[in-house]
Amino acid sequence: MVLENKIDNANSEQYKNTKQRNLLNKNSNAQLKNKSKMRFTNSSVKHNYPNRPVGFFSSLKIELSAIIVFATAIAFVMAWFLLKTGLNGWIAMPLTLIVALGITYIFSRGLTAPLRQMKNAAEAMADGDYSVRVAVENRRDEVGKLTLAFNEMAEELEHADQMRRE
Question: Over 80: is that where the pLDDT of 148 sits?
Answer without folding.
Answer: yes
